[in-house]
Every structure is written in C-alpha cells, then in structure tokens.
Design a protein that fits this description.
Keywords: Coiled coil, Hydrogen ion transport, Ion transport, Transport. This protein is an all-alpha fold. Helix content is 92%, strand content 0%. The chain has one domain. The protein is built from 2 helices and no strands.
Length: 120
C-alpha cells in the first residue's frame, strides 16, 4: 500500500513537472509571438511611411510648377495694380493740392460760439 502511495505521489510529481514545462513553453511561445508581431508591425509602419513619403513627393513635384506660375501671375497683377494706383495718384495730385490750398486760404475768422455767449 505504501508503495502504491509513493508511486501515486511520484506520478503526480511527474505530472506537475510536465505541466510546468508546458506552461513554460506556452510563455515562451507567447513572448515569441509578441516579438514577431512587433517586428511585423514595425515593417508595415516603415512600408506605409515610405509609401506616404513617395506620395507626398509626387504631390509636391506636381504642384511645384503651379506654385511658381501662380507666383509669377500674382507678381504681374501686383505690378499692374501699382501702376494703376500711381497713374491715378498723378492725375488727382494737382486737384487735391488745389483743393487743400483753397480750403486753407478761405478761412473766415469769427468768434467761437462759447465766446459769443460770454460777451452777450
């Protein structure tokens, strides 16, 4: 009877050792799977990043010409507006100066209304 009990205990100890091995292998498998998943995710991120950079460079290249063209058009438009303003200034300058001189020389001196009230 004692031999059977010790044999049962021995079987239980072996089963426990086998279970510990299985648990350890499962942990190692899980750790390895996590490492693999991280490296796979890093690769996918790098590929996506490269694709987006190429897409951006293509977009930038396609719009770079239009930017300089647009800038040139805006510069021409600005020059035209400045010339138009300068011409308008030159044509109205004499009239404005004459109007200012006329207003400055047509002063009619009179007493202030508050001063008039005090004298009355």
């Amino acid at each position: 009877m004692a031999a059977q009990q010790s044999q049962g205990i021995q079987t239980l100890l072996e089963a426990e050792k086998e279970a510990a091995k299985i648990v350890q292998q499962a942990r190692q498998y899980r750790v390895q799977k996590l490492k693999d998943a991280r490296s796979e995710a890093s690769k996918e991120i790098e590929e996506y990043k490269k694709a987006k950079e190429q897409e951006f460079k293509a977009f930038e290249a396609s719009h770079a010409g239009t930017t300089s063209t647009t800038q040139a058009a805006l510069d021409k438009e600005t020059d035209a507006k400045l010339k138009e303003i300068e011409a308008l200034f030159q044509s109205k300058k004499k009239d404005v100066v004459n109007t200012l001189l006329q207003r400055a020389t047509q002063v009619q001196p009179e007493l202030n209304r508050n001063l008039k009230k005090l004298q009355a």
